[in-house]
């Protein structure tokens, strides 16, 4: 009957409303990733950085405690900047655009680390306590993202095998570290 289907419809609406922030978080992350990578590949890295900044701002505006989630973003920026600079200094990876200081991570890559941090307490929230899975996600997802970025022209592997290996190891270490920071500084904490 019509009356018996009302609770089912309300349940579906509630489920959709619960999933909407996750879906938006994933979509905004992908949009920022594409804007940063294609912007860098086409010689206009600032475009991607503007998109990333809007995504990060939107994320913080939606956080129950923006200060706590800001800590996650700052830690991701610092660790990401050090890691990217390490890849450059070892000669494994080369970037053509978005370089403010030679030998230091390009600013559009830092923007990507900030945008990645916005996923930790939202779309990746259910993985925060799973360090092994976080390491696997980073160990495989990191190199896959860099490989895609290289294919699109945003970066160049100087030493392909060494670069992908270092990226895999680096992301396998950094992802669980960032998951732990996100768990402790969760501005989206569910009460």
Describe it for me?
The protein is mostly helical. The chain contains six helices and two strands. The radius of gyration is 18 Å and the shape is globular. The relative contact order is 0.16.
Blueprint of the fold:
Layout: H1 2-41, H2 45-62, H3 66-89, E1 93-94, H4 107-120, H5 131-151, E2 156-157, H6 160-184
Antiparallel strand pairs: 1-2
Features:
single chain, 191 residues, mainly alpha, 2% strand, globular
What percent of residues adopt helix (DSSP H or I)? over 70%
- What's the mean pLDDT score? 92
The 3D shape can be described as globular
Provide the succession of SSEs: HHHEHHEH
Radius of gyration: 18 Å
Class from helix and strand fractions: mainly alpha
Tell me the β content.
under 5%
Strand line-up across the major sheet:
1-2
How many distinct helices?
Answer: 6
Task: Give a summary of the structure in a few sentences.
By secondary structure, the protein is mainly α.
